[in-house]
Amino acid sequence: MTERRSRAPGSAPTPRVAIFRRCHPNTVSARPHAVATAPAGGLSFGAELRRKALHLTALGFPVGIVLVRRPIALAILITMAVVAVALDVLRQRSDVFRGPFLKVFSGLMRAEEIPDRGAPIVLNGAVWMCIAAAACAILYSAPIAAAALIMQQIGDAAAAIVGRRFGKNKWPGLRKTLEGSAALAVAAFSSAWLFAQLPVDGLSEALPVGLLAAGAVTAALAEALPMPVDDNLRVPLLAGAAMLLVA
Questions:
Q1: Residue closest to 175 by CA, chosen among 224, 128, 131
Q2: Please, which residues have CB within 8 angstroms of residue 226's CB and are 6 or more apart in sequence?
Q3: Which end of the chain has fewer surrounding CB within 10 Å, N or C?
Q4: pLDDT in tens, 150-159
Q5: Is 104 helix (H, G, I), strand (E, B) or coil?
Q6: Residues sharing a CB contact under 8 Å with residue 195, sequence separation 6 or more, in sequence order
Q7: Which helix (H) or strand (E) holds 57?
Q8: How many whole angstroms separate alpha carbon 120 and alpha carbon 192?
Q9: Taking a C-beta distance cutoff of 8 angstroms, is the pair 215, 242 a contact?
Q10: What are the extents of the domains in the chain?
């Protein structure tokens, strides 16, 4: 039989209980495992892998950008971004959406993505990716927009895996590791180069090696440096800007 440890009277609640109470303030007494909660100390390595795997489903964005006519692609991406933002606002303001959403996705969310009830809206990473896809499609040509999104999606996953598993050397004054940043740059360049080889008219010519290298290095720096903008948005936008300047 598993031993149940009692909490001393007056002591602070555990992180899981605290998050549960934030999400369900009207519940007087409830077992903390009655609803899934985000780990207070950050995602475990396994949860991080599942989160990145979910994000990789967004690879359909860059593929669609180069295969679908620009007006249609813009209409789809802008609509998806608006709907994603609206749903994320609802899950933070409506109990009807909040409970079911957290039961399904809270295990893949960071603690800061589950704000207190009534606190300022905090968009989750998947929503920022939808916004980034629409923004890149608006600002850049189809090849550059697609390459920038791929660099973020593949590069970010590589940085998370390598940085957490093998990262030992941190950037001076930063929490990101040199190993993670190097993995991001290599994965971003490689994946974008492979993407450029797709049999799409003019794609490889629009994405030469030097342009991709500039985008990949910029993506790694944008992910490592602390900025007030979510990395799912700033990485593809800055990578796209660098490629636009080099083009």
A1: 224
A2: 174
A3: N
A4: 999 999 999 9
A5: helix
A6: 62, 146, 147, 150, 203, 207
A7: none
A8: 36
A9: yes
A10: 45-70+125-246
Q: What is the structure's pLDDT at 108?
A: 75
* Nearest partner of 56 among 111, 108, 113, 123, judged by Cα: 108
- DSSP H/E element including 175: none
Measured between alpha carbons, how far is 32 from 112 in angstroms, rounded to an integer?
18
CA pair distance 155, 134, nearest whole angstrom: 19
Residue 15, token pair as written in the block: 């992180």
What Rg do the C-alpha atoms of the chain give, in angstroms? 20
- Sign of the dihedral defined by the CA atoms of residues 43, 45, 47, 51, in that order: positive
Count the neighbouring beta carbons within 10 Å of the beta carbon of residue 82: 13
Quote the pLDDT of residue 82: 98
Helix or strand or coil: residue 170? strand
Q: Answer whether 192's CB lies under 8 Å from 150's CB.
A: yes
The whole-angstrom distance between residue 230's C-alpha and the CA centroid of its chain comes to 8
Which residue stretches of the chain have pLDDT < 70?
Answer: 1-41
With CA atoms as reference, report the closest residue to 113 among 60, 188, 47: 47
42/113 Cα distance (integer angstroms): 11
Q: CA–CA separation, 56 vs 154, rounded Å?
A: 7
Beta bridge partners of 170: 177
Helix, coil or strand: residue 177: strand
